[in-house]
Amino acid sequence: MHVGALALDRPLLNGSGVVDVVSADEDWNLPDEAVIKLGAFVTKTLTRDARAGNEEPWAEAIDSGTLINAVGLANPGVDAANRDWTGLAARLGMPVIASIGGSVDDLPELARLITSAGWAEALELNLSCPNVDGGLVAADPAAASAAVAAVRAVTELPIFAKLTPACAAPAQVARAVEAAGADAVTCGNTMPIRAAAPDGSPLLGAGFHGGMSGVGLHLIALRLVAEVAEAVAIPVVGLGGIDGEAAAQRMLDAGADILAVGTGAVLDPGLIARLAAVLQ
Ligand SMILES: Cc1cc2nc3c(=O)[nH]c(=O)nc-3n(C[C@H](O)[C@H](O)[C@H](O)COP(=O)(O)O)c2cc1C
Asked: Which of 75, 132, 194, 261 has its CA 20 to 30 A from that of 206?
């Protein structure tokens, strides 16, 4: 399977930020052995400057398979990544996809810096983070396509555009990013929800802001994948609530070409190896 010039030995990725091996926040880190069967590793979203993220707590489980989080893109910043992650692909034995985000205006500069640093074989544009101001770029076809076009103009690396389930017309967004030069669409990010505890108080440090991931997101993600897969010719990454072989099959049936796992793999670190065996 290829995404532009990126060759994937296996059509299986991790969800940015939630399955990690380099994050400063160890809660989301898995040992290298747990991710070794991926086709490529997607980094935590990088921003221009280091970010501490929102107030903690960052995440809570609302049932056994569903999480609400509002991390707020805590990351070391692009300069630290360019310094520290040059050996990451060799360490993991797979290509690395750099996720970039934060302010949409920063995306071309981030793309340029990471392209010249040379450690990533592809970029994923996080156009869909519900936990930072202005994060839901992918809810709007014109804004999403402008973001992809601006990055396309400065790099030849393959571009994954990460969409949001919080969108009435995802097919339109997907067609717009494909026309602007995206090589794949990742479907998708967490679903923005009201992060209220059972007693009505804010659940997380970010107050009532949060995004839902895991099994509670799965049917929402399937709809996103199905509508987008009908609309575009480029590969579609199915991401949202995959917790086993049955959910993986539903994603493939909905039209995903590549699968990605986040919450499911953190809750069950053997999941990636099991899915890899099926996707062999
Ligand atoms: C704790 C946490 C941190 C996340 N951080 C990022 C991030 O930095 N960038 C990004 O694009 N998505 C991020 N996501 C979203 C995941 O990559 C994924 O899109 C989402 O969790 C849905 O997949 P899942 O249901 O398999 O977890 C994060 C999700 C969680 C739960």
From this structure: 261
